[in-house]
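TICKET: design request
STATUS: open
ATTACHED STRUCTURE:
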């Protein structure tokens, strides 16, 4: 039996935000694994720690405790510069709700940017990504000339162009209508299935979460439930039921 590679291990990650008047526990001993070619969805109520988790995994914020392993190797210096920038450049692709494209660059320039910053030849890879996301005709356009769905496809291509071990997607369909959301989810599924890309997807939408292989449910900084999606189940309804139970805890 073939063993699936464990890309990421998160072990007892904790994070507090302390001010003069208040202490917020954002993450409380969070542990989980992410496997090669897996899409893992993270759902939770507002303020449950989802965004903090992505910030920690992207080395944008340092945890107070815990261990992150990448392919079995402890990442013990990724929260200090310049190691943090190297980690983000080599390890993580980001997809945001608001696309975060550079308005003065063309589609192909936005997609090529991660390779350009690494000083790597990029023309062949950019062409491959343009064809993958169906934007070859629009390669000379700037973001303002594109629809929201097209802009998100550019953002996905940019995140995938270096073939990072992990893609972190923060509400990638949050600004899109239903049909465009389905289109974006199909591209992420294609990346997972064909490119063996490992993806952590934060969403509040059960329909979006149902495209994942597994769903983790967050509440008050902890993983309180999980669900393995199955082709034989109505995954969306099962996820809705579990999410409703979180809302009842508020």
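STATUS: resolved
RESOLUTION: sequence designed for all positions
ATTACHED SEQUENCE:
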């Amino acid at each position: 039996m073939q063993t699936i590679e464990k890309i990421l291990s998160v072990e007892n990650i904790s994070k507090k935000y302390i001010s003069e008047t208040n202490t917020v526990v954002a993450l409380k001993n969070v542990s989980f694994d992410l496997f090669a070619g897996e899409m893992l969805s993270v759902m939770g109520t507002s303020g449950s720690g989802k965004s903090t988790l992505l910030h920690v995994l992207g080395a944008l914020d340092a945890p107070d405790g815990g261990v992150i392993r990448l392919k079995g190797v402890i990442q013990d210096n990724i929260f200090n510069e310049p190691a943090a920038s190297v980690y983000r450049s080599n390890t993580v692709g980001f997809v945001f709700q608001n696309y975060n494209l550079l308005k003065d660059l063309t589609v192909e320039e936005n997609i090529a940017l991660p390779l350009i910053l690494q000083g790597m030849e990029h023309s062949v890879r950019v062409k491959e990504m343009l064809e993958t996301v169906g934007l070859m005709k629009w390669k000379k356009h700037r973001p303002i000339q594109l629809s929201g769905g097209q802009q998100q496809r550019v953002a996905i291509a940019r995140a995938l162009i270096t073939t990072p071990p992990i893609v972190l997607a923060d509400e990638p369909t949050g600004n899109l209508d239903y049909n465009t959301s389905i289109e974006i989810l199909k591209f992420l599924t294609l990346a997972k299935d064909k490119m063996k890309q490992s993806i952590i997807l934060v969403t509040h939408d059960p329909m979006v979460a149902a495209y994942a292989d597994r769903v983790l449910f967050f509440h008050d900084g902890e993983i309180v439930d999980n669900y393995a999606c199955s082709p034989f189940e109505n995954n969306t309804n099962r996820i809705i039921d579990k999410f409703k139970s979180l809302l009842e805890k508020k």
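CLOSING REMARK: The first strand starts at residue 6 and ends at 18. The chain has eight helices and ten strands.
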